[in-house]
Design brief:
alpha+beta; 5-stranded antiparallel β-sheet; globular; binds guanosine-5'-monophosphate; binds zinc ion
């Protein structure tokens, strides 16, 4: 196995994309999935995840994919009218806990600012 595929076989989001770990999938277009977060921080808390293993937003090499991630994210959960928040945590101080790029979609309640 290459270094890359070892990383991917132990990556929780790669395993969700491939179906090895179950998740509540609300979207899958073959390139991007959206799932319900297992530990929701708002009435709607979804994760929008590319099939491809990209570690984080700092490792992104595909502008079209990032654009599509945000477009898919904004359309999840029927939140366009009331409002919602998209979040990308990156690295240790950014609060990233899963090293596979993902966009959080948070909504369904009044969100506060600044976040913690
Ligand atoms: P991060 O902290 O990296 O920005 O976000 C990771 C998110 O993934 C967290 O909100 C966490 O609750 C969620 N998460 C971690 N493991 C799983 C899992 O196995 N299934 C689902 N659906 N969400 C997960
Ligand atoms: Zn991965």
């Amino acid at each position: 196995l290459s270094e890359k595929s070892i990383e991917e076989s132990s990556c929780i989001f790669c395993r969700i994309v491939s179906g090895q770990i179950p998740a509540d999938r609300v979207h899958d277009d073959g390139e991007i999935i959206a799932i319900k977060d297992v530990n929701p921080q708002a009435p709607t808390h979804l994760l929008v995840i590319p099939h491809r293993h990209i570690k984080g937003v700092g490792d992104l090499d595909d502008q079209a994919l990032m654009g599509k991630l945000f477009m898919v994210a904004a359309r999840q959960g029927g939140l366009l009218e009331k409002g919602f928040r998209l979040v990308v945590n990156n690295g240790n101080e950014g609060g990233q806990t899963v090293d596979h790029l993902h966009v959080h979609v948070l909504g369904g309640r009044q969100l506060t600012w600044p976040p913690g």
